[in-house]
Write a structure and sequence with these properties.
Elements lengths: L1 E3 L1 H5 L5 E11 L4 E12 L4 E14 L6 E16 L18 E3 L4 E3 L1 H11 L38 H4 L3
Parallel strand pairs: 5-6
Antiparallel strand pairs: 1-7, 2-3, 3-4, 4-5
Length: 167
């Protein structure tokens, strides 16, 4: 998602432009449709990009190992710094902090990398295909979401029998 921000950089500080996002972005081993709205605000240092975007990624359930589409909501807030003055074209110094995003020499702000990073951070560490996913049988590997298996109940070690009474 590339946006020419030269006119916004020429506008007074505090100027705002709103954009609709409806593009494919490479996220987690594949292109995904990203939709939503982004607001660009001219700051004293560059352009602040704020937006609420929606996408989905295909992940593996941590209990039953099935693939499913996991919806993600991305609340983006990043400041982009210009590398060249919009009027003179002279190079501008970049901030000392690390991990910042830039506006290139042609005054193009590219949201793609920020969207990708926010999406990767939004993917759950232990994704579940559904809240009540029952997982797999530890003996035969049958998916309990599809019903019970034919395995015999496991014998409980007598050392743990008192704890088993609590369940």
């Amino acid at each position: 998602m590339r946006i020419n921000v030269s006119q916004l950089l020429k506008a007074p500080i505090g100027s705002v432009r709103d954009y609709e996002v409806n593009e494919m972005v490479d996220i987690a081993e594949g292109s995904r449709l990203v939709q939503g709205k982004v607001r660009l605000i001219h700051t004293n240092r560059g352009i602040l990009a704020r937006g609420k975007l929606h996408t989905e990624v295909e992940v593996t359930c941590s209990r039953c190992l099935s693939l499913f589409h996991c919806p993600l909501t991305l609340d983006i807030e990043e400041e982009y710094f210009p590398t060249a003055d919009v009027v003179s074209g002279a190079s501008l110094p970049l901030p000392d902090e690390s991990g910042y995003f830039i506006i290139d020499e042609q005054h193009i702000l590219d949201l793609t990398e920020a969207i990708r990073q926010y999406a990767l951070l939004a993917i759950p560490m232990k994704p579940l295909c559904r809240e009540d996913c029952t997982g797999l049988c530890p003996i035969c590997g049958h998916d309990f979401n599809q019903g019970p298996c034919d395995c015999l109940p496991q014998q409980i070690d007598p050392c743990w029998s008192e704890l088993h009474k609590l369940t």
